[in-house]
What does this fold into?
Amino acid sequence: MTKEWTEADGTVYRLNADGNYDVIPPAKKAKKPKKQSKKKVADE
Amino acid sequence: MAQNRKFQDFVETKYLADNAVTEAKVGGLQMHTLKFVYDGTSLTTGAKTLTDATGAALTLPAGAIIHSYMIDAEVPFGSAGSATIALGITGAATALLGATAFDNAALIRETSHFRHPSAGSLVLAESSVLLTIAGAALQSGLANVYISYMNTV
It folds into this structure.
C-alpha cells in the first residue's frame, strides 16, 4: 500500500503506525521583503 | 399480464450455476458495490483509512472504475470548529469529494445521495479509501461509504 505521496497542491500524505495518514500541509513560501516606495526614498 | 410459462422458471436463480454470470457474459458492465466504514474512533484531523464493517482492511481493486459513491452518516458529523471532510483513495485523497464542510448536505444522512467522483474515477493500483478531516477535529461521526464500480474491460 502507498506509504507516502504528495498531492498537486503540495500536501503530503504519510502513513503512520495506526494505518491512517498524517496530512502535512505544503510549506508556505517566505514573503519577499516590501520594496520602499520611490516617494519615501526621495524624501530621505 | 400474459406469462411465458416455459421461461418463467428458466430465469429463477436456482437454475443458475454458481458464478455463471461472469464479467465476460455481461459485457464487462457488471457493477460491484463495496461498503466502507469510518468508525469514528479517530476524530482528529488527518486521513483515516476506511475498513469493512468488521474493522478489517478493505480496498478497491486495481483497474476499478468508480461510477458513484454515497456517504451515509449513521452518526452525524459534528465539530466545534470549521471541520471539513474529503473523500478519496490512496494517492488521490480528494478524488471522490473535495474538502467539504462537515454539515454540508452531502454529508448528512437525510440529504446524501449517490454522487460521481469529483476528480477521477480510475483506480490505477489497489487502493484504500480515505476520509480526510481538516480544518478542525470532529466531535462525532460514524459513516458508511458505499462505492459502486465496474472493472476495466
